[in-house]
Amino acid sequence: MNPYPNSRYELSRRGFLTKSAQGLGLAAAYPLVSQSVSAHEHGGRKPLGIALVGLGGYATRQLAPALQETEYCKLTGIVTGTKEKEKIWSDKYGIKEENIYNYDNYDSIADDEDIDIIYVVLPNSMHAEYTIRAAQAGKHVICEKPMALSVAECQQMIDACQKAGVKLSIGYRLHFSPYHRRIIDLAKGEELGAPRYVQSEFGFTIGNPDQWRLKKALAGGGAVMDVGVYCIQGSRYATGLEPVAISAQEFKTDPMKFGEVDETVTWQLEFPNGIVSNSTTSYSLRTNRLYVNYQKGRAELEPAYSYRGLAGRINNETLDFGRTNQQAKQIDGFVKTIWEDTESEVSGEEGLRDMRVVEALYKSIAQGGKRVEI
Ligand code: NAD
User: Which domains does the chain have, with CATH numbers?
Assistant: First the structure.
């Protein structure tokens, strides 16, 4: 199941960049996260080894191909519960037999010197456990979004990584897109004045009614947990502020299919100084947009949240940043934070802040849309 079918660009090959074309010209104008040290300064360092845990759609179709484009990281291991995938992946990516794990021997990855980073790409309810066990194995961790099912779990993951002395980051790939870097930059208010209003929407039509995304125990929630977190992220970095309150409303057209999780949710986030953002997320309608109104203009991305093919404008200027492999940049960016011993912009704390908003959002829905302070 492709969770982002609303992008007509999804199946396009346009996003697969040659390294030489990747990011050329863009880095100077809008430096991507953690690019404070230029590539050649890391020259001669051995790329770090990474193992993907959970070889589903995202790992197979996005992360593994992205790992063929990373400069500082190499796919050296896999963790899978499906025997047939072992040969397919080792044939395709040259993964050594001794670097192939399953869910029973996962912890023995601790002794594997070919693996420095574990990337958790499992259903949401498994993020906390597999991140904590990765940290206990002494490995740095990238965990997919949503970081976990609760603020308490997020905190446990952060604590486990701190205790083990390993780095933790969340798969917030859009921080590594030049389109979103531009939005992040505009939040400073230097070009168009202060941001005043944000509209952030992301929804798609979900297929198979039996998938884990529709089971509360595995997903923790519906569209909000899956793609709504992008809207929360977008509103936070477009304003550069932390929200103080939320009011949320839930709507269902198919109470059977969405018996356990939310289908469509709208919400308003209040930021300091009367700044507001309005969002919609859905499992039954296609929308993919980030709009920001500033004192002196507006910025608009549509599609905003896809893997590639983003488009947009700032006032009358059309944005065209060419092609970027968001995931390759994201993973290389994480390696730099390890090498430089800096904090990732998409750290565990960043995931926790979003989860705080998600918890307040569900509380507001449970209280009939009442305003809940965050
Ligand atoms: P998927 O269903 O395609 O894959 C899930 C994988 O987990 C499968 O390989 C499955 O075998 C394995 N698994 C292990 N235990 C399982 C269990 N008990 N139930 C179900 N599956 C189990 O899902 P996906 O789309 O790859 O999503 C995985 C994670 O990645 C999710 O947390 C999702 O939110 C995230 N994701 C992020 C992005 C992004 O753009 N950052 C995009 C897609 C998915």
Answer: 8-170 (3.40.50.720), 174-323+348-373 (3.30.360.10)
